[in-house]
Amino acid sequence: MNSNTLNQKSFIPTPPEKGSFPLDHENICKKYYLLYMSCLRRNSVNNSKCRLEAKEYLGCRMQNNLMEQTQWSKLGFEDEHNANANENTNKN
Fold first, then answer.
1. What are φ and ψ of residue 58, in 5° steps?
2. CA nearest 34: which of 51, 53, 52, 9?
3. DSSP character string of 1-28
4. From CA 41, how far away is CA 62, in angstroms rounded?
5. How far is residue 47's CA from residue 36's CA, in Å, rounded to a whole number?
6. Structure confidence by residue, pLDDT tens digits, 9-44
């Protein structure tokens, strides 16, 4: 056996600050995942047509601590409040 192996400190992994996307081992958000994937299939992988499904999936992950709580605007979505204000402005 190599003596260098015995003297090395054990590696303790730390998750990255950004970009960590833990697996959903308990299938908590599987329903939303499947809805999003079926939407992508129906729309020839055009993700712009599946924004609602993507938002529901990410929302499920945030609610269940499978990802960091993040503002919707930082994920490419409008905040609910801003979206409602824009709709009301466009109707007038």
1. -65, -35
2. 53
3. --HHHHHSPPP-----SSS-----TT-T
4. 25
5. 9
6. 787 877 666 555 678 889 999 999 999 999 999 999
